[in-house]
Design brief:
43% of the residues lie in helices and 22% in strands. The protein is α/β, with parallel strands linked by helices. Strand 1 and strand 2 form a beta hairpin. Helix 5 packs across helix 12. The protein is elongated. The protein starts with a helix and ends with a helix.
Length: 315
């Protein structure tokens, strides 16, 4: 069954006869009869019966025609979407949910809208790091963001090479503690002790709660080594940065994550603190994390993606 045959059958219904439909479609009546017979045979139904005023749809025929009309409308929307909004105006992003927010995306949207008369289409998904790599490898995303410990750089490079992915490092950052600006611990951060630390609940990204690829497991191990989970009042796991920041802003929960230096300095609601030395394990090998952008080798990026990369380089 093809879309053109559906159009033919809808015309038969609208015209009330095969001859009238054939004339309006500029096809022969025998050809139209064959289309009708073949379709009825394919689906095992009778679409039309003959009445006093011409052919009329059966009950099954009405359902078939209604669904055909809906399908043709969706097909037209599909054609219009890709005729009016080609890849140059589309940006698909897969981001590690540990990756901090930045204003490069909003700047790209404004800049692209100012320079083009076509609608900018953005698809943004937050995933675990290994899923970001998988989305890029499958061609389901144009750009990806990952976060990993600097000590795991060699393993990450091997993984990226295996999937023919290129990396653009955006910034390095140690793990930070995040809390709301009016949090009690900010009265005297230097007086923060393990006992006081354990009195508060924590909010963590869900990717940090389960082992993923080796690099992500290292982030998990680093975070788990900082907190005594059996001593805390609670841990909330979230799977989006919006929820992560919202809980920190509205409660006394403490978060652990990373952020570019300029974001840590300008946040109006949240304060970032360096992790106290007494919290770090003796090895301290996961202190420094790398946040980077990845994309496929030898695949030309769309103008929207290139513009976004240019904004990201200013982080």
């Amino acid at each position: 069954m093809n879309l053109q045959n559906m159009q033919y059958l809808l015309e038969i219904s609208d015209s009330g006869s095969l001859s009238a439909a054939a004339k309006r479609l500029s096809v022969t009546q025998p050809y139209l009869s064959k289309v009708l017979r073949d379709t009825e045979k394919e689906y095992g139904i009778t679409i039309f019966t003959r009445g006093k005023t011409g052919i009329i749809p059966t009950e099954s025929g009405r359902l078939f025609l209604d669904m055909s009309r809906d399908l043709l409308e969706h097909a037209e929307q599909f054609r219009q979407t890709f005729r009016e909004h080609p890849d140059s105006c589309r940006l698909r992003i897969a981001a590690d949910c540990c990756f901090p927010e930045n204003d490069a995306l909003s700047k790209t949207i404004h800049a692209f809208s100012d320079q083009h008369d076509r609608t900018f289409r953005l698809f943004y998904r937050e995933l675990a790091g290994h899923e970001v790599i998988r989305e890029l490898d499958a061609g389901h995303a144009d750009i990806g963001f990952i976060v990993y410990p600097e000590s795991q750089n060699e393993k990450v490079q091997e993984l990226l090479a295996l999937h023919s992915l290129e990396e653009q490092i955006l910034f390095h950052s140690p793990l930070q503690l995040f809390c709301r600006n009016a949090h009690p611990v900010l009265k005297d951060p230097n007086a923060l002790t393990q006992e006081l630390f354990d009195q508060y609940s924590f909010v963590l990204h869900s990717a940090e709660a389960a082992s993923q690829i080796s690099a992500e497991s290292s982030i998990l191990n680093g975070i788990q080594s900082l907190i005594r989970q059996d001593q805390l009042s609670g841990i909330t796991y979230v799977n989006s940065r919006a929820s992560f920041y919202s809980i920190i802003e509205q409660t006394d929960s403490i978060g652990i994550g990373i952020a570019p230096l300029h974001d840590r300095e300008k946040s109006p609601e949240i304060t970032a603190l360096p992790v106290p030395e007494w919290l770090w394990p003796e090895s301290g090998h996961n202190r420094e994390l790398v946040a980077s952008c990845i994309f496929r080798n030898r695949v030309r990026l769309s103008p929207a993606a290139q513009m976004y990369l240019a904004e990201l380089s200013r982080l």
